[in-house]
Amino acid sequence: MEDEAFERRNGAALASARRVLSRSFLARTLQDSLADLVAHGPASYDLSRPVDVYGGGIVADLESRTAEILGTEAAAWFPTGTMAQQAALRCWAGRTASPVVALHPLAHPETHERDALKVLTGLRVVHPTADPRPPTAAEVLDLDEPFGTLMLELPLREAGFLLPSWEELTATVTAARERDAVVHFDGARLWETTVHFGRSLPEIVALADSVYVSFYKSLGGHSGAALAGTAEFVAETRAWRHRYGGRLFQQWPAALSALVGLDRELPRLPGYVAQARVVAAAMTEGFAGLPWARVHPEVPHTHQFRVLLPYPADVLAEASVRQAEESGVGLFSFWREAAPGLSATEVTVAAEGLDWTHRDVVEAVGGFLALLP
C-alpha cells in the first residue's frame, strides 16, 4: 500500500508539474487519452468508417501503413510486443530447423517476459556476449554452437539504449549470415535510430529478415506492436497470433492512437534525439561534482539515456517527487537500484523537453541535488 500511495503521489506531482522533459504515462488520465484521440484522430483516419472486427478496417490500414514506412512487403498487428516476438522467433525456428536463438542476456525476452521464450516455445538461447553493449561480429562468428536466429535489440535498452555503429551492425548481420542464421530485429524503439545510423528506416530494416516495432514506445500510442517482413513470413505469424490469443474482437482505439503517433511523433523523433544530446551534456555538467555520478551514454544514441547516482533508489525517488511538488519541475519519474548504493533512472526527451536550454537543465539538476541528503 505504501508503494501504491507513493506511485499516486508521484503521478500527481508529474501531472501538475509545469515543466518536464517528457510527459510520463503516470501523468495521463483516461480523460486525457480520450481527449487526445478525439482531437487528433480525425487528421489520421476517417472516423466515419466502420470499426474493425477481428482485424480488417483500421487495423489492416495500420498494417499497410507500417509496411510502407518500414519498406517491407507486409506487416501484422499484434496486441503486445512479447507476443509478436514469440511468434517471430517460433516461425524462424521452424523455418531454420533450429530451436536456438542467439541474443543478448539483457534483451527483452531474457529480462521482461518471465522466460516465455523457453516455457511457451521450447526454444533455447545462447549469448554472444555478456558485456553491457550490442554483440560484435566477431562474437557472433565465435559462438561455439550453431544457432538458427540472431536477435538484435536496437537499441539495447537495459545497457543504456545503446546502438552499434552502422558499420558494426552490418558486420554483425553479415556474420550471422555466415553462420547460416536469419536475423530478427527487436526494434521496439527502432523508429528513432535513423539519426544515429544516418540511414532511413527502410535501409535499416532491409538488413534483417524480420523486425518488430512498438506503437507505444517512442510513438506514444496506447499499446500494440507490429511484425514486418516478407508477405509469406507475415502470413505465418498471423497464424501464431491467433494461436496465442492475439486476434482480438476490436482494437480500433489502440490502432487509431498508433496512426496518430505515426503522423505526429515519428517526424519529431530526430528533433527529440538532438535535444536529448543537449540535455545529457547539461546533466553531465550538473552532476560533475558528485562522485560516481554518470550519464550513459554521454552522447545519447536515441532520445533516451540513463543516469546513475550514488544514492539508494528511495532517497532519489523522494527527491524527484519533492522537486516536482515544490518547484513544478519534473526531471525524473522513477529510480531503481543498479548496484548496492547506486541507482539508475531513464531520461526520455520528447515534445515537452524541446524548449529546455543547457542552462535550464543545469539549474534543474542543481535544484534536485539540493534536495538530497
From TrEMBL:
Residues 58-284 form the Aromatic amino acid beta-eliminating lyase/threonine aldolase domain. Its cofactor is pyridoxal 5'-phosphate. Keywords: Lyase, Pyridoxal phosphate. InterPro entries: ArAA_b-elim_lyase/Thr_aldolase, PyrdxlP-dep_Trfase, PyrdxlP-dep_Trfase_major, PyrdxlP-dep_Trfase_small. This is Beta-eliminating lyase-related protein. Belongs to the threonine aldolase family. PANTHER family: L-THREONINE ALDOLASE, L-THREONINE ALDOLASE-RELATED. One of its GO terms (molecular function) is lyase activity. Pfam families: Beta_elim_lyase.
